[in-house]
Amino acid sequence: xxxxxxxxxxxxxxxxxxxxxxxxxxxxxxxxxxxxxxxxxxxxxxxxxxxxxxxxxxxxxxxxxxxxxxxxxxxxxxxxx
Amino acid sequence: xxxxxxxxxxxxxxxxxxxxxxxxxxxxxxxxxxxxxxxxxxxxxxxxxxxxxxxxxxxxxxxxxxxxxxxxxxxxxxxxxxxxxxxxxxxxxxxxxxxxxxxxxxxxxxxxxxxxxxxxxxxxxxxxxxxxxxxxxxxxxxxxxxxxxxxxxxxxxxxxxxxxxxxxxxxxxxxxxxxxxxxxxxxxxxxxxxxxxxxxxxxxxxxxxxxxxxxxxxxxxxxxxxxxxxxxxxxxxxxxxxxxxxxxxxxxxxxxxxxxxxxxxxxxxxxxxxxxxxxxxxxxxxxxxxxxxxxxxxxxxxxxxxxxxxxxxxxxxxxxxxxxxxxxxxxxxxxxxxxxxxxxxxxxxxxxxxxxxxxxxxxxxxxxxxxxxxxxxxxxxxxxxxxxxxxxxxxxxxxxxxxxxxxxxxxxxxxxxxxxxxxxxxxxxxxxxxxxxxxxxxxxxxxxxxxx
Lengths: 81, 452
Hints:
The complex is a heterodimer of chains A (81) and B (452). In chain A, 48% of the residues lie in helices and 14% in strands. Chain A is of the alpha+beta class. Chain A has one domain. By secondary structure, chain B is of the alpha/beta class. Chain B folds into 2 domains: 33-52 and 312-432, Lyase, Ornithine Decarboxylase, Chain A, domain 1 (Beta Barrel), CATH 2.40.37; 55-311, Alpha-Beta Barrel (TIM Barrel), CATH 3.20.20.10. Classes of the chains: A alpha+beta (81), B alpha/beta (452). At the A-B interface, strand 3, helix 1 and helix 3 of A face strand 1 of B.
């Protein structure tokens, strides 16, 4: 789950008030964060991305997992438990 | 609604570091076409990877170089350096433009003859000329550039046998102010070896000493070094006139002008650092004109420029195989071009352009080739757009040395295409096949069968 206090601007800038770090994301990265914040799970995010972008599920899932790994590394995600 | 082009999601931590005045930026433009032909169409027709040569660029670069020199010195002759690229089609473009042939082996010598170059217009350089090679070169009245005394004595023996008077030059190495000195080719100027060889040739009375040659280095960034070389060869030529009343017909300054590829370790791109043809021409012409040759006896200036004339005309087209992350999280991309095809990636940071539209987002990427070897790295670190599996890309400035130094390693060499002046593609070297490879192998009878 993406931390609730993470702010995402329309231009793809992310600010983490816990660490004071800033990040930038590309448009698809911003879309994914928005979809997750809306409460969508992995499959729903994939569905929404495939509706908007020219990509197949297998390709996207590999990139999605990589993206989420980085979000975790950057401490932008908190575990549900 | 039409779907958007996909680029993988990207997140980057924003870091405030010291500004880097040498920091590069990624190219914003894709290279979708070469001389009017779509990269994707070329790859669809001829397969990936694919070498593409531009006839238009070869001819325009040659004309530019020739003009730079002929505007400053009245007698100039280029000789095409076969070792740089000996595709027959490429050689013949240079020959059509007026270049002689400069070869460094019996194989290259035969190639030049087969291409239709007259023996008289072949310059034979290199340290390894066999008795058979020299016999052929003497018989064909080629210009033999003697590299060492053993070669000189072999020629003397052949003269008696063949009853011919060969046209020869000596190769001279020297201190041009650029270090390390390339002192492996020919006879040294400073320690008297060059005069020793010249005296032996003149004393023999059996050869026509027609020229003086040097090859001072490669990817030379200093025009001044060529000025020094031209002055020192002029000094030898004028000394021959004084001592023997003998005039050499030409001074050959070899090759070594740089191309627009950026050397590894350079702070700035080559386009910002390399001297122009005009810079080299100005320095060389000044040195020759300021020597004490009488105006009506200026020696012919021969140039064996290879890299600077053909590198920009060559492209290597390829396809992305996969995107991965390294153990430390660095982005890596595997492509279908390895160091077996792009030999020059060992010393250049080749420019690589996507062949389709892309966004402004980039990632620091290591680009690996497809070979199952750790050294197969095309770019250790390049700011690359977000390429997807299957995307195409173009490696720039590959016309020099790659099509001669390429290796047949675990795979077969690909097609080479030339785009002519009308924008039509011609296959100039077909891809290798297993059949080609097997034709060269012989299997002893006792090794034909086995049980597993």
